[in-house]
Amino acid sequence: MNADLPDGWTIERVRSASGDAEAVPLSLERLVVVEQHGHVDYEVLQPDLILSFHDLCLARADDEWYMGQLDTDGSLICWASYGSDLVEAIRGL
Q1: In whole angstroms, what is the distance from residue 35 CA to residue 56 CA?
Q2: CATH of the domain at 64
Q3: 79 within domain boundaries
Q4: pLDDT value at position 35?
Q5: How far out from the chain centre does Cα 48 lie?
Q6: Is 51 part of a structural domain of the chain?
Q7: Residue 66 resides in a domain
Q8: How far apart are CA 30 and CA 16, in angstroms?
Q9: For the chain, what is the domain count?
Q10: Helix/strand/coil for 33
C-alpha cells in the first residue's frame, strides 16, 4: 500500500498529516481531469497516485499534486495544482 507514496511516506503518515484516519490510495482506473480557468475543455491528467480524503482527493501527475473531488461516475475533477510537496498539498485540504 505504501509502494507508490513519495520516499519516506507511509499511508499511516498520510493519515496523521491529514487528520483523516480513513485516507486511502484509490485505483488509477478512472478519468482524471483538471479544470482550466477560462476554458470549456478539461486537461486530462495521467496520475501515478491518487489519495482519497473523505470528500476530497489528491492526484499526483508529473510531480505535481492536484486537488479535486470524485464525480458521481467515479471520475476525478481537479481544480488546481497544490505544488510538488505532499505536506503542502495536504495542508490545502
Answers
A1: 15
A2: 2.30.30
A3: yes
A4: 92
A5: 10
A6: yes
A7: yes
A8: 26
A9: 1
A10: strand
44-83 burial: b if 16+ Cβ within 10 Å, else e? ebebebbbbbeeebbbbbeebbbbbebeeeeebbbeebbe
Tell me the β-bridge partners of 56: 53, 69
Q: Across the strands, what pairs with 77?
A: 33, 69
| Residue whose C-alpha is closest to residue 80's, from 72, 71, 93 | 93
| pLDDT at 40 (0 to 100) | 83
Answer for the pair 32, 63: CB distance below 8 angstroms, yes or no: no
Structural domain includes residue 85? yes
Determine what percent of the chain is predicted with pLDDT higher than 70.
98
Residue 1 — pLDDT band, cuts 50, 70, 90? Answer: low
**Cell numbers 475533477: residue:** 77
- β-partners of residue 70 are 76
**Amino acid letter at 47?**
P
Provide the residue count of the chain.
Answer: 93
Q: What is the span of the domain harbouring residue 71?
A: 11-91
Sign of torsion over alpha carbons 15, 77, 61, 28: positive
